[in-house]
């Protein structure tokens, strides 16, 4: 009888132990996300934060079905000492174990950043800074760091050439210097041996090609004539002519509301006034994308030395070999523009 009681007791204890083990297993490995989570929840854990910040966020957003079981596992695994900042995504069906391990490993999810239509480093910092933990000012400080620019073989004026507009994946916690390193790496990847050889044939460095491409981009948004526009400027450079590019004048003035460059604007002296100074300006006047860069590298070989807007106001240009041909083209455009402006004014008057 005694033995029977012992065996029954052992059996009860075993069953109880199995039940406890099964419950513990469930607490650790079964889904613990709130049933209301349908897709995903994004959490931003700052570098200067604490484990308590994480706990408060999980509770405030009501992310977990059973917060206490998560906290017990987190404390058991030492998450408070191994807490890693970052941007994390919690999806429906995640267990306590998978959530804790995600934070322990720092397995954060990257963000996608896109930049284009950028003129100034301030523009780039304003566009990207708010999307990164470092913020706008920290990024701008690095972009203004001349000593850093020199480590890449560049200077403060042309430092921005390494930023090729595109969409990139980076971590939210990326530091400004790390981000610049990444962009420099992307720039170096772009400059393949074939592209380097084409730049060498033109007689320009990769940085100078980017500066020229920025002028081409400033002159036209028509991709199918960019190679012709580039050809004009390359012809001018080879003959030692001034580039006389209106967009560089506007950039030097810094007033981007200017739509027509007049004599008054041409008298504004800056290193970017290519009517006054020979050769390329000291840095890019915008950030040209891969399309524009390749249009310059594969420019059209022709004898044109001039171009001006077409009289059909289409945004395309007429090209000319001689100044007299150019003046005739310019006269046609001025007549067409004045007529367009007259009709526009008359229409607005009604």
Task: Summarize this structure as a short list of keywords or feature phrases.
single chain; 350 residues; mainly alpha; Dna Ligase, domain 1; two-stranded antiparallel ribbon; 16 helices; 6 strands
Topology:
Layout: H1 2-29, E1 40-45, H2 51-60, H3 67-76, H4 79-82, E2 86-91, H5 96-105, E3 111-115, H6 121-128, H7 135-143, H8 146-151, E4 166-170, H9 176-190, H10 193-202, H11 206-219, H12 226-239, H13 246-253, H14 263-266, H15 290-297, E5 306-309, E6 317-320, H16 323-349
Antiparallel strand pairs: 1-2, 3-4, 5-6
Describe this structure in words.
- By secondary structure, the chain is mainly alpha-helical.
- The protein folds into 4 domains: 1-28; 31-105, Endolytic murein transglycosylase (Dna Ligase, domain 1, 2-Layer Sandwich), CATH 3.30.1490.480; 112-190, no CATH class; 193-302, no CATH class.
- 53% of the residues lie in helices and 9% in strands.
- The protein is built from 16 helices and 6 strands.
- It has a two-stranded antiparallel sheet with strand order 1-2. A two-stranded antiparallel sheet has the order 3-4.
- It is elongated and about 120 Å long.
- Residues 10-26 have low confidence and may be disordered.
Task: Round the mean pLDDT to the nearest integer and report it.
Answer: 91
Low-pLDDT segments, ≥5 res: 10-26
Helical residue percent band: 40-55%
Integer tally of domains: 4
Structure classification? mainly alpha
If you compute it from the alpha carbons, what radius of gyration comes out, rounded to the nearest whole angstrom? 31 Å
Instruction: Tally the beta strands.
Output: 6
Sketch the major β-sheet: 2 strands, antiparallel
Shape: elongated
Spatial gap, N to C terminus? 112 Å
**Spatial ordering of strands, largest sheet:** 1-2
What is the H-and-E element order? Answer: HEHHHEHEHHHEHHHHHHHEEH
Oligomer kind: single chain
Helix run count: 16
Which band does the percent of strand residues land in?
Answer: 5-15%
């Amino acid at each position: 009888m005694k033995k029977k009681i012992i065996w029954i007791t052992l059996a009860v204890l075993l069953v109880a132990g199995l039940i406890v083990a099964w419950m513990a297993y469930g607490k650790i490995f079964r889904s613990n996300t709130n049933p209301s989570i349908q897709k995903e929840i994004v959490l931003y854990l700052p570098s200067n934060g604490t484990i308590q910040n994480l706990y408060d966020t999980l509770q405030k957003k009501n992310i977990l079905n059973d917060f206490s079981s998560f906290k017990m596992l987190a404390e058991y695994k030492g998450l408070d000492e191994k807490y890693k900042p970052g941007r994390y995504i919690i999806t429906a069906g995640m267990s306590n174990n998978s959530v804790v391990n995600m934070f322990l490993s720092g397995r954060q999810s990257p963000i996608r950043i896109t930049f284009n239509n950028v003129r100034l480093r301030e523009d780039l910092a304003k566009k990207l800074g708010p999307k990164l933990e470092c913020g706008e000012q920290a990024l701008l400080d690095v972009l203004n760091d001349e000593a850093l620019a020199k480590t890449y073989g560049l200077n403060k004026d042309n430092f921005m050439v390494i930023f090729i507009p595109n969409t990139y994946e980076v971590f939210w916690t990326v530091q400004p210097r790390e981000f610049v390193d990444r962009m420099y790496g992307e720039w170096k990847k772009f400059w393949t041996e074939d592209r380097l050889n084409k730049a060498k044939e033109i007689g320009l460095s990769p940085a100078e090609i980017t500066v020229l491409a920025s002028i081409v981009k400033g002159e036209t948004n028509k991709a199918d004539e960019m190679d012709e526009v580039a050809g004009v400027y390359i012809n001018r450079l080879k003959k030692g002519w001034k580039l006389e590019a209106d967009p560089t004048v506007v950039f030097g003035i810094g007033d981007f509301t200017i739509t027509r460059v007049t004599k008054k604007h041409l008298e504004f002296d800056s290193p970017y006034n290519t009517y006054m100074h020979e050769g390329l300006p000291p840095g890019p006047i915008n950030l040209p994308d891969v399309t524009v860069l390749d249009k310059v590298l594969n420019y059209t070989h022709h004898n044109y030395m001039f171009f001006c807007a077409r009289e059909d106001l289409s945004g395309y240009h007429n090209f000319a070999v001689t100044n007299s041909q150019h003046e005739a083209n310019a006269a046609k455009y001025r007549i067409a523009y004045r007529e367009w402006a007259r009709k526009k004014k008359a229409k607005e008057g009604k």
